[in-house]
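sanity check this record:

:::
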Amino acid sequence: MKKQRVLVLDFGGQYKQLIARNIRRWGVYSSIEPGDISIDRIREEQPIGIILTGGPNSVYSPQAPNCDPALFGLGIPILGICYGMQLMCHLLGGEVTPCDVSEYGQTVVEIDNSSPLFEGLARSETALMSHTDRVSRLPEGFEGIAETRDCEFAAIQNKERQLYGVQFHPEVELTPNGKKLLYNFLYKICGAEGDYSMKDFIEKQIKAVREQVGEEERVLLGLSGGVDSSVCAALLSRAIPNRLICIFVDHGLMRKNEGDEIEEVFSKQDVVFIRVNAQDRFLEKLKGVTDPEKKRKIIGAEFVKVFEEEAKKYGKIRFLAQGTIYPDVIESGVNSANIKSHHNVGGLPEDMDFKELVEPLRSLFKDEVRAVGRQLGLPDSMVDRQPFPGPGLAIRCIGEVTKERLDILREADAIFREEVEKSGEKVQQYFAVLTGIRSVGVMGDERTYDYTVALRAVNTTDFMTCEYAKLPHELLGRVSSRIANEVKGVNRVVYDITGKPPATIEWE
């Protein structure tokens, strides 16, 4: 039986993934589609609701993203957010003009909580505003249901046609009760039943994989030990026990003990687990290389070579499995504007002899992948693994990558992670960087000239932006003392207090 779904139509807003993820957290399946999706396609999808995202353009600009005006006559409940609300008004005969006073940041919104959209909310709420245009005249049949000091129509509705709009962003943390608003749209207006769950997903994917692969064929997977590939492996081991060949290329660029932990977990699964110890091979290729982009290219190319060499030992295998997830698909432009390319999106590798891809996680967001991993029994240390770049520690080791420098970085990083975890501080990502800087120090009565380690800890909801984590000085002092005393070759520790932007999360 087909599950209920909500379509999120993308008009270039940076928060589209947050919208879709929040809908799923309320137990309703969502997918992100282009704003100019055809009416026929919408009818095929049979959504119970549609959400129009924000975007950076002005709706009255000739180049502005648009949608088919017939969208608003389908009888499907629609919620327009920021640009989405303005576009709805613009296409239905209202007027959108530049603001006299632009609104940015958290703003007090006075609401009419008799509207089904605001049921259960207070008369005054705080919300994130981010707009330079405003709706200055409503289309016929609409009424205002919220206002701010500088925005007369902060939210609107046409209850008869089930059309709603909000000028603010309910999907972000800076709108504290925004998730309740989304719940109201889903359950009070769209009639959602909450029929989407990870348990359902696992059962459905196991069946789908068995149908795709058949009863005898084998599947090959490049297992990195990251969340996505690990959960993919665990799901496939459940679907096709002992017919999944997992090749773990250990390039020697992982964190302390990670390779052994990956082997410990997957050598006990119903898979053929192969660990290729290629540390020396990668270090030889990286000798003398300091440019981060060259490091990336060398590591990526060598990884493919090692994987191909090992794969050939198993003869012809028809299926290649990948841990592709939904943000990879979105960001690669398959469903929306192209942001960046991903190695595992866009079809089969041209130079590899596979016939079909198996991508059981392709429709999931990262938090859903983690939930699936927990249900499949993977350990928390693997399911909650922090984001880790493909080139591994090579791009946290500024300058040339050598075994000696990697060992220093591994030890420093392990101390930092251990102390943060023991402290109970809430931090999304934290790691150490071995800088290319050596500085004068003193240990005992002797002068030293050793490396500087930088610590990086950030908080973020989407990893597109972040703030540095304001860790207690007592914790930072303890980490610094331990690293300087326990890690030979380090005499100075610094803490990176830069957000993104202007910096990135990684140093290289």
Summary: The mean pLDDT is 91. DSSP finds 14 helices and 18 strands in the chain. The first strand starts at residue 5 and ends at 10. Residues 403-423 form the longest helix (21 residues).
